[in-house]
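Below is how a single chain appears once it has passed through the pipeline. First comes the sequence as given, then the structure the pipeline wrote out for it. We keep one example in the README because the format questions we get most often are answered faster by looking than by reading.
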Amino acid sequence: MYDKTLQTNPDFYEAWLGRGIAFTRLKQYETAIGCYNKALQLNSEHPEPWYEKARCYAIKKDIDLVIDNLQRAININPKIRKIVQQDPDFEIILDHEMFTQSS
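Resulting structure:
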């Protein structure tokens, strides 16, 4: 579905984001990250691609990239901090100072 949409409209942000989410669900994290990167090229002011990239990196246990991408998402939407604390994919970073300091 996303591929067909992107053939006719390659700059469709929502399609790149949706495609990334689909690949994340398929556990094809590198492909998903590529889709999120394309979505970010089109619009870096939405927190979702940053958050979803961070999720992929959390699953891959790449802590530095998790923190970097989450910080970008949180800078755009501070409510992301609470969402992360309830998302089991991010359990590996909840002891990071980003989450242990009072907000």
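The chain has one domain: 2-100.

See the next section for the split statistics.
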